[in-house]
């Protein structure tokens, strides 16, 4: 059976990772099946994913009860549940890691979103997670905040694989890439191996279009002339992909620089751009638009389950990451037009703040529901 995902991976050099993880997925063999039949070569997780996985799912009850009897705190119980799933997923993906010489086969686990703006705590948790889980194909997710980027450099310097998450602006991506390089340089300066360290920079997509489309729609609703409406409609639903294409040009520039080449000579791997938030929110758009339009070498696309199935059914493989580059710059520039007047920097800053909150809320909700379940599972005397 033809599978566009396998064609994307094998013919166009883009890795497809699954944006989902649960114990059911592991226990039923579904994850192994997706690796074999769908060409999945990695996994990302986040607090929202674990909230959905754990809440209302009895498969976790035995471990929750065991943690309760052992006198663990609710946070400790949370970690026992999540760490077991992450370890098992890492073990399932280890053959992929070995077969690709450490290019793929990773499972990402995020540090608590509540510490996104605390550099020292982020460093401490990244080191603790990586050491405690003990899997070489584990990636620690660190938010690309101004406080998170020094933690990225420190984690890389310490030999930890890092997935830098919540990147929206091209500038934040550029800062992320240099933070990765800085960490490698520090490690190399100590004479330590840098050839087995991997990193991805998770560049978010659909949230950008959802946010900017709302702004554009509101401008039209307030009343504009026909020429302005045409101008606005010409960029609706196109900002995220244009922004990603501009970021890819920066990726090429950074990872061909002399500074990078000095590290590459010592065996370093480039930090790949990862397209995140790729489930299409607007039903008027193609459900695989954030896959088809951003296929290209040395990139990763992380897909939620429904997008995996949609892509396996009707993606159109072809290398497009460098097509229509001039148009991408023109689309971004059009936001500055007086008739459009959208401050992209401000939008990206707001999306970052909202993104942190969108991870904090499910994390807090999960902790509260775990606390409730622990009480329910406590035997009455």
Low-pLDDT runs of 5+ residues are: none
CA-CA gap between termini: 59 Å
Shape: globular
CATH class: Alpha Beta
| Whole-number count of domains | 1
Strand content: 5-15%
Got a strand count?
Answer: 8
How would you characterize the largest beta sheet? 8 strands, parallel, barrel
Structural descriptors:
11% strand, 381 residues, 8 strands, alpha/beta, single chain, 8-stranded parallel barrel, 17 helices, TIM Barrel
Nutshell version of this structure?
With 381 residues, the chain is α/β, with parallel strands linked by helices.
Describe what you observe in this structure:
The chain is α/β, with parallel strands linked by helices. The chain has a single domain (4-208, 241-321, 352-375), classed as Alpha-Beta Barrel (TIM Barrel), CATH 3.20.20. Helix content is 56%, strand content 11%. The protein contains 17 helices and eight strands. The protein has an eight-stranded parallel beta barrel with strand order 1-2-3-4-5-6-7-8, surrounded by nine helices. The model has no long low-confidence stretch (mean pLDDT 95).
């Amino acid at each position: 059976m033809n599978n566009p995902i396998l064609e994307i991976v094998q013919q166009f050099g883009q890795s497809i990772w699954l944006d989902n993880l649960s114990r059911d997925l592991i226990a039923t063999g579904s994850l192994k099946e997706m690796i074999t039949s769908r060409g999945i070569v990695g996994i990302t997780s986040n607090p929202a994913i674990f909230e959905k996985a754990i809440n209302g799912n009895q498969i976790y009850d035995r471990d929750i009860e065991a943690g309760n009897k052992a006198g663990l705190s609710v946070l400790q119980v949370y970690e026992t549940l999540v760490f077991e799933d992450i370890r098992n997923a890492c073990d399932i993906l280890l053959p992929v890691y070995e077969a690709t010489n450490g290019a793929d086969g990773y499972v990402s686990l995020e540090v608590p979103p509540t510490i996104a703006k605390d550099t020292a705590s982020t460093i401490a948790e990244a080191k603790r997670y990586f050491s405690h889980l003990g899997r070489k194909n584990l990636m620690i997710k660190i938010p690309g905040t101004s406080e998170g980027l020094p933690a990225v450099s420190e984690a890389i310097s310490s030999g930890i694989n890092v997935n830098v998450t919540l990147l929206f602006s091209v500038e934040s991506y550029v800062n992320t890439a240099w933070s990765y390089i800085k960490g490698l340089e520090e490690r190399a300066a100590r004479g330590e191996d840098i050839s087995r360290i991997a990193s991805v920079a998770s560049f978010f997509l659909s949230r950008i279009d959802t946010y900017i489309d709302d702004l554009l729609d509101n401008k039209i609703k307030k009343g504009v002339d026909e020429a302005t409406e045409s101008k606005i409609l010409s960029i609706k639903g196109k900002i995220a992909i244009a922004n990603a294409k501009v970021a890819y040009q920066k990726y090429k520039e950074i990872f061909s620089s002399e500074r990078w080449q000095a590290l590459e000579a010592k065996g370093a791997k480039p930090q790949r751009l990862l397209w995140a938030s790729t489930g299409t929110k607007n039903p008027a758009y193609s459900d695989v638009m954030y896959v088809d339009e951003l296929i290209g070498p040395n990139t990763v696309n992380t897909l939620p389950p429904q997008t995996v199935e949609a892509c396996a059914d009707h993606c159109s493989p072809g290398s497009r990451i460098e097509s229509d580059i001039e148009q991408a710059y023109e689309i971004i520039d059009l936001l500055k037009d007086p008739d459009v007047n959208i401050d992209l920097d401000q939008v990206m800053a707001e999306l970052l703040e909202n993104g942190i909150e969108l991870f904090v809320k499910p994390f807090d909700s999960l902790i509260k529901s775990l606390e409730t379940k622990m009480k329910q599972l406590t035997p009455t005397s």
